[in-house]
Amino acid sequence: MSTATPALQKPEGQSGASKILWFIFFFFLKLVLAIVILVLASAGGLAVGAYLRMQSLPDVHRLAYYDPNERSEIVTTNGVVLKEIFGEENRKVVQLKDLPKHIPNAIMAIEDARFREHTGVDPVGIVRAFKANMDSNETVQGGSTITQQVVKNLFLTSERSYARKAAEAVLSVQVDQTFNKDQILELYANLIYLGHNAYGVQAASETYFGKDAKDLSLAESAVIAGLIRGPEMYSPYRSYQAAKTRQAMVLDKMVEYNFITKPEADAAKKAPLKVAGIRRGMKYPYFTTYVMDYLRKKYSDTDLETKGFKIVTTLDTRMQDAAQRLLPPHIEKLKVYNIHQGALVTVEATTGHVKAMVGGTKFGYGKNEFNRAFQAQRQTGSSFKPFIYAAGFENGLTPYSVEVDAPVSYGNWSPQNYGRSFSGAISIKQALAKSINVVAVKVMDKVGISKVLELVKRLGIDSEVRPFLSSALGASEVTPLEMAHAYTAFANDGFQFEKSPILRIEDKHGNIVWDNSKPKGKRVLGQDVARALNSCTRTVVDGGTGYAARIPPHQIAGKTGTTSSHKDAWFMGYTPHYSTAVWVGNDDNQKMHGATGGVFCAPLWHDYMEVVLKNEKVRPFPPEIPLRRKAQLTKGTHTMAAKAPTEDDDRKKTESARTAALERQVQERMRANQAAATDAAAPAAVPVRIRTRTTLPEPVAPAVQEAPRQPVGRMDDVPRTPPAAAADTTPAAPAGGREGSGRSDGGTADGAASN
């Protein structure tokens, strides 16, 4: 009988536990496999993402064309900076080769000591910075290299992520391979922010120490390098002690890395910091504000703040200093006459360049930024008369043409001379020298208002000159700059250049983008007209109301001006080279006490121009030449002043014939003298004595009362402009000078008195 071996069987009660174990085993196996797969997938995704991001990184070669925002500067011809123009970023780019070695060495010592050794990313520096920060329990060093800081600022955002750090590292290596170390360091030195709107070491040097970066000492260089990590924290303007502490740290690092010796560092630490103070103002503010106003007509504010222009001005500092020195004390002396403001501006007649400008008194630009030299429109008084006579010379009159100075009326307006006196028959030349109002109005009426206004525009006056006969006496408002510019046409033999305060403009690379050093002028007056007028205006200075402006042996021409309300006084004087306007008055239009241009303006003009003309050769005006122009005059619109008739018609005819004969006789003698003067090449014709009345001519009025007249003396085709000020019809008291008074057309604006 055979014996069977029993089969192996699972113990009873173990089958459930075995299943649980196997379940757990397979679960963990699947979990591990899932994790492995997930990790592999994530790694692959990261790799793909990194690859794609690297492919989309910017091209570092663009750094070769990087053009940072750079401030513009307004400077004089000898390099004095008048104003820096910038927005948020005050930056002026400098080359590394122009900097003292202390600056790059200080920057590398505190920011990236192994800059010249690593390849854009420095693992050693990262470990060293980590250890230093742990030892100090604060951030005293950064792990980023100079190259990485350049990349982060120019190519990347401030995002805090590993992806951004990886991109930064890759780009830094590329930059290091593409550019040399000096190029990278130069870019960094001009890029970094160093506090108080200063970007780059040049702007920082000027902001903190008031000097060019090339002139920085070791001690000052260490201060600027120390600002990189905390511009506001370590600013000497915020905390002098914090700045010195940070400076010492930079110097110690420079010793540690053998950039300087310990004795040099110790000496620099002991040197006191002489900060210059933050200066954001302007030098010569009245002139500089005019330059800014001129520039804004050519460029936007953004261009001026970021393009790095160098604007070389026409300013003559010697003339500007003289104007600023002489005007305030002159106005101070005139305060007893209730005069509180003044302006002076000089334009070079041969170029149109504005050489000097002062638009206020000793209270200064900081107290009142209103620039009266080019912003204040003031009534010109008799300084407007040369424009009338120039128009007359263009239309058939000569300096020796005779007008009768006698009472006249234009509708309801009767112009008056100062003192209510009249001279009878008188030449235009003498009428201008004596500043006779009636003759000026008569000439404007005969020539035609439209012709006078056309000439005024042609001479560069943009302010509105109202189309009334009262404008002959300066009742319209013009700026001192416009007047000085207009007179350059007289000074320059009929040629005129556009007024400008700018000589040239250069871009940040030194290329000239606008050149005004040799401007092109244009003829605005005939040569014969300009010379005829000069012979008249020279008489004003040689023996007329502008006598106080004489500067022998120089030849001076000009015209005084005072408004009838005594609110404005002028002297417009010029030589063959310069035209200078002087104005005094009050911003609130208060009356001055007895003011006249000859007394209150001509002496200042004399003192100023005496400085200007010192050591300059005498330039005579060209000789007068005959005026041979066909007469294009109207009969005029005036009538004699209305009084009751006292003579019969025969008497009136006799007086008229006598006056006509006298005028013909004087004109013939003038023409003879003019011809003789031309043949002899004399500078001016022989003066002629004119016999004048000692009594007023008897006026004639119609026997029958006429209907009231409408105002005349206004162009029909030009709309009437409301006057700027209320009428002031109270006659001014005589002030010891040759003055005149006249009310404006219809009594609606201040007239202008001669002086």
Word description of this protein:
The chain is an alpha+beta fold. The protein folds into 2 domains: 99-270, Orthogonal Bundle (Penicillin binding protein transpeptidase fold); 356-500 and 515-717 and 725-753, Beta-lactamase, CATH 3.40.710. 39% of the residues lie in helices and 12% in strands. The protein is built from 23 helices and 23 strands. It has a 6-stranded antiparallel sheet with strand order 7-6-20-19-18-23. Strands 2-1-5-15-16 form a 5-stranded mixed sheet. A hairpin with a 5-residue loop joins strand 1 (72-75) and strand 2 (81-85). Helix 13 packs antiparallel against helix 22. The radius of gyration is 42 Å and the shape is elongated. It starts with 14 loop residues before the first helix and ends with a strand. Mean pLDDT is 81; it is low at 1-13, 48-52, 641-653 and 677-754.
Task: Outline the secondary-structure elements.
Elements: H1 15-55, E1 72-75, E2 81-85, E3 90-91, H2 102-111, H3 123-136, H4 146-155, H5 162-178, H6 181-191, E4 198-199, H7 200-209, H8 218-226, H9 240-256, H10 262-270, H11 285-295, H12 301-306, E5 310-313, H13 317-333, E6 341-348, E7 354-358, H14 364-367, E8 378-379, H15 385-394, E9 402-405, E10 408-409, E11 416-417, E12 424-427, H16 428-433, H17 437-447, H18 449-458, E13 477-478, H19 480-491, E14 495-496, E15 502-506, E16 512-515, E17 522-523, H20 527-543, E18 557-563, E19 568-574, E20 578-585, H21 597-600, H22 602-612, E21 639-640, H23 649-679, E22 740-741, E23 752-753
Parallel strand pairs: 1-5, 3-4
Antiparallel strand pairs: 1-2, 5-15, 6-7, 6-20, 8-13, 9-12, 10-21, 11-22, 14-17, 15-16, 18-19, 18-23, 19-20
Helix pairs in contact: 2-8, 2-9, 4-5, 4-6, 8-9, 9-10, 13-22, 15-17, 15-18, 15-20, 17-18
